[in-house]
Design brief:
Elements lengths: L2 H12 L2 E5 L5 E6 L22 H13 L9 E8 L2 E10 L8 E13 L11 H12 L8 E9 L1 H5 L2 H18 L6 E5 L2 E7 L6 H12 L4 E9 L5 H18 L5 H24 L4 E9 L5 E9 L7 H9 L3 H16 L9 E6 L7 H9 L10 E6 L7 H13 L3 E7 L5 H7 L4 E4 L11 H16 L3 E4 L5 H10 L3 E3 L33
Parallel strand pairs: 11-12, 12-13, 13-14, 14-15, 15-16, 16-17
Antiparallel strand pairs: 1-2, 1-5, 3-4, 4-5, 6-8, 6-9, 7-8, 10-11, 10-17
Helix pairs in contact: 3-7, 5-6, 7-8, 10-11
Amino acid sequence: MTIRTSLLGFAFASADLLLELDKRGSTVLGLGSGPTTGLSAESFNGVALWNRVAPASVDTLNGVLKSLRPGARSAPVELLFNAGEGRMRRATARFFLLPDLAPNISCSVTWEGPAYRLHDPEAAPALEPEAFLARAQQMMAPPAEPRDLAIAFVNVEGLAAAQGMGEAGERLNARVEAALQAASVDGATAGKLGPEKFALLRDRSEATDLAGEMEEIGRDEGFELFADSTESDLTAGGESLSALRALRVAVEGCLRDGGSGRPDLSFTAALSQTLKDAHAFQTMVKGRRFELHYQPIVDLKTGAVHHFEALARFRGSDSPADAIHMAEEMALIDSFDVAVAEKALSRLRQPGAGLLKFAVNVSGASLADDRYVQALLRMTSARPDERKRLIVEVTESAALSDVEAANRRLGGLRSAGIKVCIDDFGAGAASYDYLRRLSVDTVKIDGTFIQGLETDPRARTLIGHLVELCRSLKIETIAEMIETEADAEVLRELGVDLGQGWLFGKAEAEPRTQLAYNEPVMSRRVGAVASWG
């Protein structure tokens, strides 16, 4: 065996195709490690390399050849080769200027995946957003093998206009979707987020010029497309599930964006910001760096304060709603719900708080396992009487994944003396299902039914029927967002038990039992706190 043969073996161990180019860029020698349809080594001989790559790769090829210096090897570059008959193939190429061969240039080519057609009628189109996220979850979530993945966002300007140009426009869109799907992990994780917006899960080791490919498809079909793409890393291994949740939040934000400005940049920024916000939220919860404010809930018949809802307030934020939604999506809400209960109990234990009663919110997501209920019972185990001064409001912001299991957990709280309320009743599609399947003490009617109550007979009818239903089930009712005495009067007439809203008082840093509003009911006991019963 000659040294030449050994060197050739070493070369083919690291590449599929070896080329020697003259100073004009024409191939003077081509060697291949195996037959490749349309891209055999012989097909390169005597042909300029510029004529074998797609137009989208010409500038890349020019740039790397101009930058070569004797004795230097180029960094790997991604090139798109024309395999003939409408097919393309991606490759990674390296170039080396050996002084003894100058001015000739050595080139090694490694094929990345099989050749594919720019438009294949059988190719799957890009997935709809929910299907894309579900597929991404399948790829990333345990027990899937950890992979080093990235999320690419591709914006293809001109696609929407082409869509209205008949068959040619439809073919262009189909080709774009097929090419993006082919570039995604396993050829099945590209999603269409809008007429010109796409996201795809990719292997981080690949550096395909996706924007160039999209513009190449446009030229081939006679359309002018302007494409750009950005990529964000999704940490592999143990952090992949958190990254997937961040991806979902970012995709939702992208869909809300509606295509304004630079959605590709806003998407990448949203993904990065979500991960930062998640870390900041965890740090805040761990350090208990948030406040509770207390809004009074009154007995509508007497005007006496019945109890207070403990509402979280974050420093530097007018509303915690966005942070709460992010925490639910990122599976961080359970620790926060426990921290809120802990702070509320701490306030109950201060001197002079003997009559105070607090309601604390718990996300449906926190009832997916036993941790929240166990934590609340553990915190009150040394002082079981405190449980009679607590009510847990189950919010519908995150749906209960297993209603029967959640009911068993809530039953454990009720057995211990802690009351349970369905919050924001009527705001979500599952409200009546929750009322049917959860054993609760109280229902809080969503404020959207209260606004405009004076002039909306349908809302009055709905509330009246709900009150009758709850009364038959021995369930107490609360109306929220009461802002006028006229609304309060209508709610009294309908039989609603308790009221909450700015008419009675806003949430304040300290619970205030002496309210300032002018209640006409003469039996009102200023400063009293009514019992649960």
